[in-house]
Specification:
79 residues; 3-stranded antiparallel sheet; 2 helices
Length: 79
């Protein structure tokens, strides 16, 4: 049997993107102003990429197949 589950959590994706962008920028060893600019650019890029799966930055739908024992993320246009 297959069924879809939509989850909503507005903070989780935002927090993960922010943390990843900060780690990326800090690893470059730039000064504070440059780091801030890189964080902002990376955050926008990561958010844009996640838009393929997340609707409004907070809704994620997965399809669970209990026969195949799989769980797949559903692209937002396929819901």
């Amino acid at each position: 049997m297959k069924f879809k589950v939509t989850m909503k959590d507005p903070d989780t994706l935002h927090d993960a993107i922010q943390e990843t962008a900060e780690k990326y920028a800090k690893a470059l060893g730039l000064d504070a102003d440059e780091t801030k600019a890189i964080v902002e650019m990376r955050r926008e890029k990561f958010s844009e990429a996640c838009g393929h799966w997340f609707e409004y930055g907070e809704y994620l739908t997965v399809e669970i197949d209990t026969e195949q024992m799989t769980c797949e993320v559903v692209p937002k246009g396929s819901r």
